[in-house]
């Protein structure tokens, strides 16, 4: 059975990647995620999610030569595929619907 929804971290990583113009490697994705959400995820943890999203055909990746400062070691760069966008829109719509009308309830506490 194919999953048709996104987990919370999957969604946040895709959104962070879109904030990075849709393409990046794990370390900047983690930094953007921390900047935007305060969520502290290790590069290894993010990499696992990135590979899972790639297996679901929501991302694609390629190897890119690294800078000389890294000894030229290559990095895996991930890019958001168009197939991810409908899932992100679906998630946004579902959350917006769930939050609608809760302002008064949340102000009570």
Secondary structure layout:
Blueprint: H1 8-19, E1 23-24, H2 26-37, H3 43-55, E2 59-64, E3 75-80, H4 84-99, H5 103-107
Antiparallel strand pairs: 1-3, 2-3
Helix pairs in contact: 1-2, 2-3
Q: How is this structure best described in words?
A:
- The protein has helices spanning 8-19, 26-37, 43-55, 84-99, 103-107, and strands at residues 23-24, 59-64, 75-80.
- It has 109 residues and is of the alpha+beta class.
- The chain has one domain: Arc Repressor Mutant, subunit A (Orthogonal Bundle).
- The mean pLDDT is 92.
Q: How would you summarize what this structure contains?
A:
With 109 residues, this protein is an alpha+beta fold.
- Multimer state: single chain
Mean pLDDT figure: 92
**Poorly predicted regions:** none
Total E-strand runs: 3
Total helix count? 5
Order of helices and strands: HEHHEEHH
Compute the number of structural domains.
Answer: 1
| Coarse structural class | alpha+beta
Rg computed from alpha carbons, rounded to a whole number of angstroms? 16 Å
State the helicity in percent bands.
40-55%
Could you give me the name of the CATH homologous superfamily?
Winged helix-like DNA-binding domain superfamily/Winged helix DNA-binding domain
Estimated share of beta-strand residues: 5-15%
- CATH names the topology as Arc Repressor Mutant, subunit A
Annotated CATH architecture: Orthogonal Bundle
Report the principal-axis shape.
elongated
Q: What strand line-up does the widest sheet have?
A: 1-3-2
Largest sheet: 3 strands, antiparallel
What is the CATH class?
Mainly Alpha
End-to-end separation in angstroms reads 41 Å
């Amino acid at each position: 059975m194919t999953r048709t929804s996104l987990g919370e971290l999957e969604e946040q990583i895709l959104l962070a990647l879109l904030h990075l113009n849709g393409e990046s490697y794990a370390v900047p994705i983690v930094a953007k995620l921390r900047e935007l959400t305060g969520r502290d995820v290790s590069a290894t943890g993010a990499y696992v999610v990135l590979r899972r999203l790639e297996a679901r055909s929501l991302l694609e990746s390629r190897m890119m030569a690294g800078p000389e400062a890294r000894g030229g070691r290559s990095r895996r760069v991930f890019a958001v595929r168009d197939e991810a966008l409908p899932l992100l829109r679906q998630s946004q719509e579902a959350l917006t619907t769930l939050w609608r009308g809760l302002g008064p309830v949340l102000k009570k506490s």
